[in-house]
Amino acid sequence: MKLSRIAAAVTTAALAPAVLIASPAFAAGSDAPAAGNQPAPTTPDQSVPDQAEEDRKTILAIIAHPMASEYMKEAGRKAIADGPQAMRKFIEVDQHKIRIDDYRVAIMRLSHDAGPALKAGIEKVFQGGETLEQLRHFYEVTQHELRDEDNKVEISRLIGTGGSAVKEAGKKALQGTPADRTAFLKTGRYLAQASDDRVELSRIDEGWDGPILSEAISKLLNGSPTPAELRHFLEVTQHELRDQDNSVAIAQIIHGGGPELVKAGRAALKGTPADRVEFLKTGQHEARAKDQAAKDQADKEKDKAKDKDKTGPGQDGKDQGQGQGNGSGQGSGNTAVTAQGGNGAPLATTGAGVNTTLMAGGAGTALVAGAGLLLAARMRRAGAKG
C-alpha cells in the first residue's frame, strides 16, 4: 500500500506543471475573466482603422504640397469625408490623374515669360503621350536648364548693346552659375545700367545748349534717382525737354526775321517735335536763303530804278533831239531837258517870261551878220594886195 501511494503522488507532481501552464486561468493571470467570458480577438479588427488613419495623413500631405491645385485640394478633402474606400481610391488612382493635369497647367504657365529655348521645350513635351514622371522631370529639372540657356542669350545681347558697366557685369554673370545669371537679369543689369545712364546724361548735358534740359539733368544727377527714374528720363523726359528748348530757340530765330523765315518757323512750331528738329537743322537755312534772294532781287530793282532816274525819262544816253529856229538858219543838237513834237513846236520853256524861240532866232541872225562882215573884210584885204 505504501508503494502504490508513493507512485501516485509522484505521478501527480510530474503532471501538475504541464496542466497549470496550459490552463487559461494561469496564462491570463489571477484576475483574468473566467472561461467563456474572454473578449474576441482584436488584431484583425484594428487593421482597418489604422490604414484609414494612415490614408488620411497621406491625403493631407498631398493637398498641402505647393504644387497641389485647388482641384486636388477639393478632391482630397472629399475623399476624407467619404471614408476609407474613397481615401484609398484617391491615393491609388485619382491623385495621379489630377497631378498630371496640374503639371500640364503649371508647365503651360511657364510659356508666358519663357525665352525661345524654353518655349521650344514646352512644345516638345506636349507633342507625345507624356507621363507623370516626364512632366515632373520637365517642371523640376528641364525647365531650369532651358531657362538658363535663354538667360545666356539675353545677357549676351545686353553686353552687345550696353555701356561699359553693363558689359563688365554681364561678362561676369556669363562666367558664373545659373543663379548668378538669374540675379544679373533680375537686379544686376539695372544697377549697371544706372551707372551707364549717369555717364550718358553727363555727356548729353555737355553737348546741349538749351537751358531747360540742362537744368533738369543737373537736378536729377544731384539727387538720388533710382535706376528706373534714370532710364525713364533718358527714354522719355529728355526728349520732351529737348523739344521745349527747340521751341524757344525757334521763337528767338524768327523774331525780326524775313517773311520766309517767319513762315517756316511758325509752321515748325505748330508741327511735331521732328518738324522742329528739321527746321533747326536745315529748314531755317533754306528759309534764310529765300529771304536773301528776295532781298538781292529787290536791291537790283532799286539800283535799276536809280539809273533810270539819272538819264531822264525816255532817254538811254543815246537819244538825240532836234530843234529848229524861226530865223534863216537851222540847228540840230542833243538836249537833256526838252524834246520836239511833230510840228516843230517847243515842249517846254525856261526862264520867267523869256521866249526861247526869239532868243534862238536873234542869236542866229547875229551869227549870220557877223560872218558876212568877216567875209567882206577878207575880200577887201585880198583886193588891196592885188
UniProtKB/TrEMBL annotation:
The keyword Lyase does not apply. Residues 39-49 have a biased composition (Polar residues). InterPro entries: DUF312_ALF. Residues 31-53, 283-342 are annotated as: Disordered. Residues 1-27 form the signal peptide. Residues 283-319 have a biased composition (Basic and acidic residues). Residues 320-332 have a biased composition (Gly residues). Keywords: Membrane, Signal, Transmembrane, Transmembrane helix. The chain crosses the membrane at residues 358-377. This is ALF repeat-containing protein.
